[in-house]
C-alpha cells in the first residue's frame, strides 16, 4: 500500500467515527438519552467502540511508518571464532568448534612404553583420564624457546574434541576467544607465509601480534595418528 493510500484510509476511518460525546454527551449539551443510564460517556458501548477504532487506526499508522521508515544499512561481517593461545613465544589460533573447554593446568601422569613422542601421558579431567599431547612436538616448535614470564600468566589446558574423543593440549597462556573476520582469515590463508609451517593455514597480523592459524582438520588428524 502506498503512503497516499494509507493516509486516505486513515482519514476516512477518522471521519466515519461519530464523536457523539462531543455533541450530545458529557462534553456536549448532555442531551443524549443514554447519558442518564451510563452517567458518563466512557461507560457507553458507543464510546468504547469508537475508542477501539481510534486505537486500531493509530496502530495501523504506527506500523505503516515503521514499514516505510528508511532502514539503516548495517554491514554484517562474517566472522570465525578462534581460541587464541601461546606456546613459547608464538601465538596461535584454533577454531573453537573443536574446543570443549579451557581448564586449569592439572598434573600430567606419564605412561610406560609410550610409542608417540607427542604423547606426554594422561591428565584427570573431571574424574576421567584423558590423553595429553604436546602441541610443541606436534607442530615441530623449538621447545627451548622461552616464553613470556609474569606472575599473572598461568598455563592452561585446552580440552579438544579429537576424532577418537577428548584430548588435553597444555599451553603456556590463553588470551581468550575472539571473533576474527572471515575475509581476514582468507587473506592470511592465501598469503603463502605458512608454506613451511606444519598444520597451519595462514599467518595473520592480529593486534600487535603475528598469529599462526592452525588447520583444525590437519591438526586433529595428527592427534589421532599420535594416539594409535
UniProtKB/TrEMBL annotation:
Residue ranges annotated for the CheW-like domain, each copy included: 79-225
InterPro entries: CheW, CheW-like_dom_sf, CheW-lke_dom
Keywords for this protein: Cytoplasm
Pfam entry (one): CheW
Keyword Manganese: no
Compartments (UniProt record): Cytoplasm
Primary localization class, coarse: cytoplasm
UniProt-recorded name of the protein: Chemotaxis protein CheW
Annotated source species: Pseudomonas kulmbachensis
